[in-house]
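hey so i finally got around to running the thing on that chain from the lab meeting. sorry it took forever, my laptop kept dying and i had to restart like 3 times. anyway pasting the input first so we r on the same page abt which one it is
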Amino acid sequence: MIEINNLTDFQADRRFFSTVAKKVLKGENRETQTISLAFVSEEEIKKLNQKFRKKNKPTDVLSFELKEDGYLGEIIICPEIVKEKGEEVLEVFIHGILHLCGYDHEKSKKEAGEMEAKEKFYLSKL
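ok and heres what got predicted. didnt touch it at all, straight out
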């Protein structure tokens, strides 16, 4: 299940994001868990990036684990930054879900490769 909170002008297709979340979560054996997805402004994601990662700049996506019953975590996306980087919102959304499932491309080249392979796999299924 997915909860979506859109605080921007970005046109988020709730059905589409729900379908993507279900496919990835099922593939990762997490289909019973809920994720929260929020779309925020560049200013807001910069504040969050500074507060939680000590990086004083905006980013495209942030993922936060939630240790509550039934919740896997929250993904925060800044559509402005995604567009500036020439990325697709779908790609960063899948990237965020994989972070919540325990993948971390910043730990090692091996994990980065595994995460990238998973991203490509799920993108090919949509």
